[in-house]
Amino acid sequence: MTVLMILQLLIVLGALWVGSRYGSLALGAISGIGLAILVFGFQLKPGTPPTDVIYIIIAAVTCAGIMQASGGMDWLIQIAERLLRKHPDRITFLAPLCTFFLTVLVGTGHVVYTLMPIICDIALKKGIRPERPCGVASIASQVGITCSPIAAAVVAFVSISNFNGFDVTIPQVLMVSIPASLCGLMAAAAASYHRGLDLDKDPVFQKKLQDPQQRDYIYGGGATTLDKEIPVEAKRAVYIFLGALAVIVLFAMFQSLLPTYDTLRALKNTAPLTLEASHLSISAEQLVKAGMHVDGMTEIFAQPLAMNIVIQIVMISAAALMIIFCKAAPKKAVGGPVWQSGMVAVVAIYGIAWLADTYFSNYNAEMKVMMTDIVKEYPWSIAIVFFLVSVLINSQGAVVVSMLPLAYSLGIEGPVLLGVLPSVYGYFFIPNYPSDIATVNFDRSGTTVIGKYLLNHSFMMPGLICVSISTLVAYLIAMLIY
Description:
By secondary structure, this protein is mostly helical.
């Protein structure tokens, strides 16, 4: 690795670090500064912006935002609350399952903010230390991203894998990621079941109760959605949303149902075509880009409509149906947390993935030389790389978009990469993610904490257990299937 490569890598890491300090839109925007330095300062060739993933996020969060504007999200939260209040003694196991499946349905972990204060309230009234269910529930809300058929991380994994010769579908990814993630979550919940002192034995908590104002603050707030009347239009919106998900999964499973189009592709191991007049050589790949068919170099085949296009069409259509038939106000959707957090994710992925692709695409050959021996001997070690990158960039979709092409270029096989997919979630390590910070604020008991030394926080233990077990189980499942 040359001094120039190291210097440019430090610029990439520096942009990500500064962006993470500011958070929100800054992560993507400040990545643009790093990109500008690489392109204009070091004259590196710009990489390719992740437009396909961005379009999918826009379509998915628009649909989910419209459902939230119709009141459909309130109904889902209400169903989850009924389950939790019916079995309060099992909340350490049920709370993460609820936040997990909410994320799986909607494709973003930002839908759980309404549920978090309810989890805390139920734990307090049952005398359970809120840190136990709250910590693992926050982790579960992000773990569900690699298990959602409309999440950018899943769709990007499928599209990038297909492009690199690993023909995997969205249902096949979910067949690995969902059971693996559930195993990891239940292991984390079991480890959290007796975590910390019980509230009646915790001297810090008991001291707070001696202050009448603190006691009223801790036990006075009773968060609930059960008193909210859910209109029929809200339930109808949920049915439309679930129907859209079913259609996407159906098309992914039976792609023969999709329309097909004549597509040009290059034949492998073909010699370049030499033009006699100019003595220029043209490769098969260049012919494809130019849309030119030459026998023996390219071929025409029937290709079904790409799943990324299917998801966009279905999600946008479902959003339109909700507006027409469910009284969902588009202005309300734009002001809602789901749509806003989704647009922040768009900017983050746009800047981060473009910056990373610019660096790695310019040094692809050097990366192969440096890492080929390691990944050939220990292909699973790419999971460590995914995890460390996620710690920096706070986006599972961005990790997949920026790092998966590099992993394939290093010769790592698709089943291995599918097996380590859960490792793209590592941003719990530094507790600066909105869902973790919000969970700390929702816990009125003060047991869910960031920690004096930053890394000794309430999400570290369940996060490490969950990601480790999920990755191990996913790897075993992928090896058994493939």
